[in-house]
Structures are given as structure tokens and as C-alpha cells.
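Researcher: Sequence of Aminotransferase follows. Predict its structure.
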Amino acid sequence: MGFLSDTLARVKPSPTIAMTGRVAELRAEGKDIIGLSAGEPDFDTPSHIRDAAKAAIDAGHTRYTPVDGIAPLKQAICQKFARDNDLDYTPQQVSVGTGGKQILYNALMATLNPGDEVIIPAPYWVSYPDMVLLAGGKPVPVPCGADQDFRLTPEALAAAITPRTKWLMLNSPSNPSGTAYDRAAMQALTDVLLDHPHVRVMADDMYEHLVFGDFEFVTPAQVEPRLKDRTLTVNGVSKAYAMTGWRIGYGAGPQQLIRAMAMVQSQSTSNPSSISQHAALAALNGPQDYIAESRAAFQRRRDLVVAGLNDCPGIDCPTPQGAFYVYPSIRGLIGLTSAGGTVIADDEAFANALLEETGVAVVFGAAFGLSPHFRISYATSDEELTDAIARIKRFCEGCS
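Model: Prediction complete. C-alpha cells:
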């Protein structure tokens, strides 16, 4: 009898976290590394949010809270959904967890039985398939290539649905591609879902506020109210308010699901940090100026990175609608050999050679379920991005 659970054999560590760890190791060795693998804003948490956390400590809000969130925060989340998404929820339909990842995981643990299928458009956030596997389900990746702007089409969705399908996981704007679904594209998907009443929707809206130009963000239950009772709408404060380390995510959905998720959470982590909850309350109820300021910075960086990468031989970089990632193709480099002697057989070989030969850390596309691509997070300074793009260009020019 083995010591470790057989479940662990079905999953793998997060490649993005692994690359971030590798960057830290190389920097500790004194190497000149530009890390473009971590998906977190480089800005400080706004001061009024930090002040609220300090005030919460001084006020003695340092004890256990209700397992899935304090009442004022749940009320603020309901107000946020009404204000931003035209969605009407009660506090009993809201769950607060230790980051958006826990909300997603709790929902999967609360609903999946062995053999239940979860449709996941690819490229996808690296954790989706493994969370499904940990919960006993079967991930069903659906490739969504650059020729369809990395979007799931209604035809592909309809073809992927079976009698065992329980969830569709939909991330817009997307990590890793930055692709977002406008109202027409979202309506096309919700029309398909109306024909399949056994399929629920897990809408991961974590990058909601990071959309560029005149793009209008929408979420499935907003576009099609008839799906509201079959939808878990997930969001958080990590990306919108530069609060990744505070670990607060939330979701809203049917009360039966929210109660089941609370039971899972009660037997795993219990409540999220009390101090972080009060900070999140200040984020949602306080001034929202920071969002527009950070969005403008990210749009400027997006344009810098897209233009720079498209000037690199062998790379084709689409312009994303949101988030702070690009997902360029390296199809033009496959089969070439780098100046350091590495054959670029696939996107993992490309990412490894790029790190070893130039000190630029990116994440290879196979980790996100679609090759030959790589992901860059442009949530870092303009100066570092300019330097990184110059190094990537030299690397590409050296391939033959």
C-alpha cells in the first residue's frame, strides 16, 4: 500500500508557479533575470485599502469569522454585482474564499461525481484541469486556436456537450490569451447552453476590470438571465485592486450550491483572513480611481509588448482585449536551432532556451493546453518589458 494518494498521480504541479520559483532561484544565484511568468500586478495595493486593514487590526477584527465571509463584505459583493453586472444576488447567494481559486475548487468539490465532465476551452488557466481531476471529474479541453481568436465557438461547445457534462468553465478576459467575449460572442454560447439544461456555467471573471479601448465586459448570467440559476459567477480583488497576496475571492450563484461550497470550506480552510476581508470591503466600497489608472498602464504595456514581439522573427502576437497577458505563436521558430545550440522542437524547448540564453522567463504554451505558443505577463515596468523584448528579439534573430 503506497503512502501517497492515487489522486496525486492524476495531477501535476502548476507550471506558472514552478517557473516563478525558478526565477527566484536564479536571482538568488545572482543571475540577471527578467520574470514575465507571474500573473500579478506590480503596483502597490491602494493606500485606502491598506489603511482599512490596519484599522481592522486596531479594532480587534482578528478572530474567526463566519466560514464563507462576513456579512458586510457579502453585502458589498451583492452591491458590486448590481452596480457592475446588473445581477441581483442576496448575501445568502454569495461565498467568500481564500482567493478565486478556492471558490472554483469548492464548487467542483461540491458538485462533481466520478466521470462527470467539465468543458474547458483551451488555452486555459493551468489549474482548471487539475482542479477537476482532484475533484474526481474529467476535464474536456476544447482547442480554440488563434484562427478563432482563442474563443470557444458555439459549434465547438455544442459538439463537446455530452450527457455527462456538468460544467462549462469560461474565463473572460482569459488567462493566458487575454481574449474576451463581447456580448454577441457570449450570447452565441448562452444560446447553446439554453438547449442543454443539465450544463452549469462557471464564469471566471477575475480580469473583468482589465479590458481595453471601447470593449464592453459582459458575464454569462448578465447576457442571458435564464442561465442565472445555473451559473456560478466568480470574481475577486486580486487583479482589480493589486491584492494578490491578500487572498480574497468570491462567487455568487444558486443558494443550494453556495451552501454546499460553505460545507466544503468549513472542513478545509474555514474562513478567509479576517483582516483581508475588511481590506476587500474597503476595496469594493471605496474609491475606484485605481482601476482606471492601472487599466491605462496595462493598455500602454500591452501595446508596447505586442508591437515588440511582432517585430521578432518567427513570432506572431495577436492583440488581446484584456487581462495583462499576451499569447504569441512561435510556429515560425519550430525546428530551428538557437544560438546556444538548442533545437526549438516545441514551445517548452523555446521557453527553456530563452531563459538559459537570455534570462527572460516566460511560460510555455503546452502548460495552457495549446501549442506552439508562450505566455508573457506584462504586469511589470515599461523598462523591464523593453529590455525583455530586446532580448527576445536577439534570441529569435540568432535562431537558424
